[in-house]
Amino acid sequence: MRIGELARRTGVSERALRYYEEQGLLRPERRPSGYRVYGDADVAAVRRIRVLLAAGLSTAQILEVLPCIVDDDGLLTPACPELVDELVKQRDRIGEAISELETTRANLNTIIAGQRS
């Protein structure tokens, strides 16, 4: 299938698909004309990429972890033990960022409440 069909099947823009290719996340075949040709496996790969992006991973991180991710009937699971440690670190970083943002929001709420007095 060509890029437009992959975009329709995945709900991802052609621009994003080209970006994934630039980042090494997708490796479509190329016809002599230069057209990209994708297979059904690429539909699943885009799905995994989107889930990992939504989980807060960068494309560079996804490039590293994608070979160790297994799609187990719609649930992504790590197949490499060392990946779990990296995912835990990423989750902890996100938790710290959330905590900092909650503190910032509380400070703003205090300032806003003081203004209304």
Automatic annotation (TrEMBL):
Key words, A-Z: DNA-binding, Repressor, Transcription, Transcription regulation
Lineage top rank: taxon: Bacteria
Keyword DNA-binding part of the UniProt annotation: yes
Domain HTH merR-type per the UniProt entry, residue ranges: 1-68
InterPro entries linked: DNA-bd_dom_put_sf, MerR-type_HTH_dom, MerR_fam
Key word Acetylation present: no
Protein name: MerR family transcriptional regulator
Species in which this protein is naturally found: Saccharopolyspora taberi
